[in-house]
Amino acid sequence: MKKLIAMVLAASMLLSMAGGFAVAEATTYTATEKGFGGDVTVTLTFDGDTLTGVTVVGESETPAIGGRAVEQLGDLMVAANNVEVDGISGATVTSSAILAAAKAALAESGVNLTAKEVVVEQKMTPGTYTGEAYGKWQKGSIEGERFGSPAIIEPTKVEVTVDETSILDVKVVSTSDTPGFTDPCIERLPKAIVEQQSVTVDVVTGATCTSQAILTGVSQALTEAGANLAGFMKASPRTDAVENYEVDMVVIGAGATGTMAAIEGMEAGINVLVLEKTGKLGGTSVCSTGFAAIQSQQQIDAGKDAYTVDSAFKELMDFCKWRANAPLVYNVLSASGNVADRIQAYWSKTSNPGVTKVGVTAHDTGKGTNKFDVLYNDFLVPAGVQVLLETRATELVTDENGTVTGVIAKKQDGTTVNVSAKAVLVCTGGFGGNDEMLIKYIGHDNFYLNGLSSNVGDGVNMCLAVGASLSDEVSPHLAEFCSNKNVDFYAGYMKFVNQAGFLALDPSGERFVNEEFFVTQALSYGASALRRAGYAYIVFTQDQLDAMVENGLWGVLSKETIDSLKLRARIVVPSYYTLYDEMEVALAAGEAFKADTLEGLGEAIGFNNQAIYQKTIADYLEVLKTGNDPLFGKRVDMMPNLDNGPYYAVKVISAIDGTYNGIRVNENMQALDSSYQPISGLYVAGQDSGGFFSYPYYEGVGWTQGYAWTSGSIAARHIIENIAK
Q1: Omega cis (within 30) before 630
Q2: Sign of the dihedral through C-alpha 383, 385, 386, 387
Q3: Strands of 322-453, DSSP E
Q4: What does the pLDDT read at residue 71?
C-alpha cells in the first residue's frame, strides 16, 4: 500500500535580510512503494516547477543488484526534470518501485514538470581510473569456492580509460564470481559501455550480479575521473525488428533437458532451434555436480550395476506411496543408463572429462558451464543446431484445432522472434524465482532460492495458457540446509546451524520436529518439516556459538556421532570461522536474537503467546535432563545442552533449488489437458513437467538432473518419431 507524506520544509516565505525580497522555499514530497526486499522511499524536492533533488532510500534492496537503481535513478530524474525515466537493466523490481514512488510523490505535489533532454557537458580529467564492487559472492562468502571461485572472495575490479568527454576503454581486471557466469559479462559489457557511452547498458541475463558489479565499478571510476554520471546513463537502444524461423523442433531452454533434446535432434538430422532467455548455456544444471542413471555401461564397468531398473522403480514408487506417474517413472529409469553413456561419449571427445566418478545412481560431473559449452561449441552448433541466447519465449502459437504450431519470443534488444515448428518442447526450469507463483501454487514464499532467479515460470504459464493442466504434486525443490530471506546465510556457515540438533521452534514458539532429522533425513523429513512451519528459530548458547567458530560441528557433536551421520565433507570442517560476523549481521537485521536467559530470549523474539514458548522450553529442558523425548524420539547424542547463557535464536527458512513438477505429462513427455489428453505439438520436460516426482523429494542423489537429461531425450525421440510419420 502506498504511503504518501507531503512535507513543507518552511511554512512561510523567507525575507532576504540582504536584498529585502521574498524567496520561495523548496518543498518536498515523499512516497513509498514495495521493492525487491522491502520498502523503497523516494523524496522529491522542487523549486517551483523544477525538480532539484531526488533522494532514494531502499535499505532492504540487494546492494549488488537493486543498489545501482537506488544510487543512480535520482540523478537521472533531476537531469531530465522528469520522473519517467528508463529503469536500470537487471534491477527491474527496484527500478519499478522507485519510479512508481516518484510518480506518486509527483502526483501528490501537483507540480507540472516539463521534461528536458539530458545534456551534460563532461569535463573529466583524462587518464585511467579503477573501480570495484562485489557481485554474486560478497566479502567473506565461503559458498563460491564450491562453484570454482577463489577461497577468498575479492571484488570485481575494472579499469576505465577516459578523455575529457568520453569513455575510451573498459577492462575487467579481475573477478571472483562464478566461472562461466562471468565470461559473457567480460566479453560483452566493456564493449557495450564504450560503444553506447553508458553505464546503464543491458546486463547479461542470468548473470545479473556480475554484470552489476562491473557497471558499479565503471561508475566509481568515472566519478573519480570527475564525470557527471547523468550524462552516461543512456538506456540500450531498442528495435521493432522481426525475425522468422521455420524448424522441425523448437526447444525452449538450454539446460540439461534442452541440451539432450538438441543432441537427439542433431543425431536424427532434423532442424532444431534452441531459445535461451539467459546469456549463457546450461541453466540450473551448471550448478549440479552430477546426475542419476541406472545400468549405464559406466556403472557396469565400475561394478556398480547391482541396482536395476526394477529395483529402482520399486524403491522410488514405494517412497512416494505411488503418487508419481508409474509409466513415466519406469520409462525414465529404463532410458537413463543409455542417456548417461551417450552424453559421456560426447564429453570424452572434448576437453571436458564429463563423468569422473560413478555410484549406484550418481554420475559425478562437477559443476560449471564448460560441460555444456563443449557440447554446443564442438557438436551442436557445427552440426547446424541454431541457438538464440537472451531470447525469451513469451507465447505459444496454436492453430484452430488447438495444435501448438510454434512460439513467439523476444530478444533483449526488442526484436520479435516468430518460430513455426512441428513440435515445441518447453523446459524452462520451473518457477523458483517467482514469489507470486510460489504463493499461488505452494502456499507461501518463505523460501531462499539457491537456484537461478531467472527461472520464473515462463514455460509453465505459456503451457497453462493453451489448455495444459498442472500436476497435483507441484512442489518446492527443498535443500537440506536452512537460510534466511533478508540475510544471506548461504554465503557462510550459518546455513549449517540446523545440522547440530539444536532446538527448533515454529513461529508460535513450539517444537515441530525431531531436530536430528535436519541431517539424518534432511530432504524427506527435516526440510519438509521446516517448509510446513514456514520459518523457525534455531536456539543455541554462546558456548556453542564459540565452539562452532573454533571447531565447527566437532565443537557440539562427538566424533562418534559425526561418523555415524556420514555428513557431507563441506559440513564437517575444522572451523565455522564466519559465524561471528554472520551473527552480528543477523542481529542487526532483526533476523537473530540474543538474551542472557531463555525467558528473555522468548521476549526478544516476540512470540505472541509467551506461555506457549515457556512451556516448550520447560518440556525441552526435561528432555535434556532425562535423555527421553516422548513426543519426538530424539536421539540422546544429538541433544546439545542449554545449560548456560547468553542464548541465541536465529530465524531460518527453507532453502530451495527451485521447483519441480509442473505441467502434467504422459510417459512420452506430451503435455496433457484437463482431460488427460495430449495437446498436439506440445511437449514439456525437466522441472516444468509433472509426474516423475512426488512430495517429498526422493532421498537419493542426482534424480533431478537424471530426470532432466533423460526426459529431454524421451521428448525429442517421440517428436522425431512423429515427424517421420
Answers
A1: no
A2: negative
A3: 357-358, 362-364, 386-388, 391-398, 404-411, 416-426, 447-449
A4: 85
